# Entry
Amino acid sequence: MSAPAVHSLWTTAADPISKIDAPKIEYGQLSPTLIVIGAALVGVLIEAFVPRRSRYWAQVFVSVVALCAAFAAVVALAADGYGTTKAHIAAMGAIAVDGPALFLQGTILLAGLVGLFTFAERRLDPAAHGKRVDSFAAQAASVPGSDSEKAAVRAGFTTTEVFPLLLFAIGGMLVFPSANDLLTLFVALEVFSLPLYLLCALARRKRLMSQEAAVKYFLLGAFASAFTLFGIALLYGYAGSVSYARIAQVVDGTATDVDPALANTMGNDALLLIGGAMLVMGLLFKVGAVPFHMWTPDVYQGAPTPVTGFMAAATKVAAFGALLRLLYVVLPGLRWDWRPVMWAVAIITMLGGAIVAITQTDIKRLLAYSSIAHAGFILAGVIATSKDGVSSVLFYLAGYSFVTIGAFAVVTLVRDAGGEATHLSKWAGLGRRSPLVAAVFAVFLLAFAGIPLTSGFAGKFAVFKAAADGGAAPLVVVGVISSAIAAFFYVRVIVLMFFSEPRPEGPTVAVPSPLTMVAIGLGVAVTLVLGVAPQYFLDLASQAGVFVR
Amino acid sequence: MSFPLLTATAALPALGAVATAAVPAARRTAAKWLALVVSLATLALAVTVLVRFDPDGARYQLTESHAWIKDFGVRYELGVDGIAVALIALTAVLIPFIILAGWHDADPLETGSRRWRPTQGFFALILAVEAMVVISFEATDVFVFYIFFEAMLIPMYFLIGGFGDRAHEHGEETAATQRSYAAVKFLLYNLVGGLIMLAAVIGLYVVAGNFSLTEIAEARANGSLHMATSTERWLFLGFFFAFAVKAPLWPLHTWLPNAMQESTAPVAVLITAVVDKVGTFAMLRFCLQLFPEASKWATPVILVLALISIVYGALLAVGQRDIKRLVAYASISHFGFIIMGIFAMTSQGQSGATLYMVNHGISTAALMLVAGFLISRRGSRLIADYGGVQKVAPVLAGTFLIGGLATLSLPGLAPFVSEFLVLVGTFTRYPVIGIIATFGIVLAALYTLVLYQRTMTGPVKPEVSAMPDLRVRELVVVAPLIVLLIFLGVYPKPVTDIVNPAVKQTMSDVQKKDPKPEVEAAK
# Structure
């Protein structure tokens, strides 16, 4: 840095306070995020100061109130017109308050609330020494199999930290799809990723597998984050700004004022293409698109099932939200460059997820590959590059997240002596032993398969329609073919449940507390309502389909 | 607003299905009676539809139209033409007989009573299928049709996979495996067909902007909606593929023998006499109306496939050792006739095809249900296990014979009229195909009479010597079907009167006229 530059820094900093503009923060419009993060901080304080025996109830109470309040705030903002006419960019250009952001925040909050119910479930695991316990480790810090672990279990410890961690993750996810500059995007990414890495490691049973999953997720996630960050740096070099609007202007060539310090690199297409590609890569990692999907099956299998359900639903919503905003707001000028690439990614994601899922023998891995295939279907809607494309993706995500949490909640119910019985062979004959649970799971599987009168069909139809409208007919054909392949393994599970003889030493279905029942019931209700009468929600999604620039 | 009769006809069995499923486990008999009463009430509604329908009136009658999913351009639109009315009546007539015939099929086994075999579920599923079939016949919105066309697979799948014949020559374990194989095969074939149709449905929306059959057909007729030739052909193929799987047409037929063989006789009747008719019906209603040019373009290939179905199905029927498989292959042969009649593009052919759908439903139901009674007595489906039944159970043998004679289209029984019309209709335009198809009838006589001869005549096998004759419940099932077969064989006018105006309309959609008689030219 040259001497005058340093001097100017010095002099600027020495200017009277009055010359620095106080940042203008629209606290009201940011209230959903603020409430959730605030509650997470309260949760940390509860861990520190509230006696152990009352922590669980205090945490659950604070979390439920916070999520409901945040959802109410989202609804109030939307009712106020922030989703449509009053959409604008808040917090000094860092956060967009617009239709897609509010819709996705509402979805994430609801998914988070339902996820919270499954987190708080304490009736499934047999009571440890007279104390009710949940699916999380007694003490995260104790080494698996060690004496300290046994002592913690004997003392009836539970990891109530999961609730603030969940709230932090939700807080980050709320910001992720509404971030309007690349740094906010990155901060949000880390804020929601780090708690998830931790949560993945906290399973009560099969702790080594859970920790392995967390390490894998963390390492690969950190790698993806590094890609994202590198991409951000390159884009900054290209545009001289991290603001979405500014980058879009430079891409379009409508930017007039050029920062002299960046005049050499600004507008360098190599920076733009490499930077954009790396950034998109980071997001594709989070949505689990092929070829960035490798972590999904291991993490989904190893993580505690309530975490898997929450993660599968909410992460996807947040990450697709961010991807949409990035592609539609920042890089629309680059459409002709990214569309062919995304075509390829969507095709291999749809086919790859569906084909590999056929050979799976573990229900959680099967659902993991199915989630990969679904990421491909959603990408088909993203590629449409139209308002319809946005609203179809929003609708799909809303329907999908409830099916996913519900399905994983059912997985937590089917248990044998070793905890959850996730191996598919153990599910044989479940329909004869517990017809209701099997029927509910069948509804979720049919929704995944996209059978009419479920939300899965309405979502798939919306996405494929948008894609076909956008001239991606071959993508629709591939999507239909992979739906057929996917239907095969969903049906296989149904066959297993209903038409196979139950095993003599098969698993039992635990009777859950009302919390899990609510989670599953909501999943079924949303699946059927969105399938039979989707119009209201399609309207909602279509009103929310415009990004503020 | 008038009473939504069409909705009611579909909604009643749907509600009945829910109510039947909700009957407590111990009240099994109550569930059966509830299902029977609901199906009879549905029949009453179907008869009301039949009475209120004016054959010379507007093309689609008793129409209902409500907004449903605006964003997809979907309206809840129902309406019936003569063809639909006839098939709704057929469905509503057959379901009570199916329920009655399957009265004891889903009773829990005495041994191993904790087995999962709820009677309630069986009858609820039958009613659910009826509801979906009826609404598929009524829908004039392509999307509404598609939804129920697809959703129908789920209850059918559980009926096939969940309930099989009580006795099985290879033991219960093998039976369960084979059943679930048949169910999965059924589901996958039809699901793939349906998903390919989904791509075409989306394509249709992209081209036309809505799903209303009447609006699209009108726009196509007056030229305001232009479809590129290749687009029309692709969309046609997408739709036709799904219907050809459902119908089923050779070479997409292989799921039918498995499904019919493994399911109980009433469910087999439900598949072939009711559900499969949706496929052939949809060819008439959707393929011909929406894509007339492409239909004409594809006609030669489809006729050849239909011809192969006729001959191949009949040939395989001759060689079967299993009674139910034999009926399944006979059905494939008959579906070949129906599809040939539709695509011969003559009014006799299409009237004959529609009439054939009705008659085939009744005759197959008669034959298959009696076969089911026979199988339940002996506990075997193999033809070789029977012999001389007519000496011990003459009524059973007699009704079986009438069902069989109807299947081979004996003059005087209903299928004869339709088969004759189809052949005449085909012959006037495609004489060679018509002549080859006639061999199908000869083969039909062969497989039916050989089946009768081997099972019913000859010396009485020791295993069948104590076989009881038809019981009252079984007679109540069979007698009305036989009366219908004879009545429609002698006097088919009530059906043809309803069907013919609708067929004329369809013919004008594809702008085909019947060929002029060529007697003059021959001189």
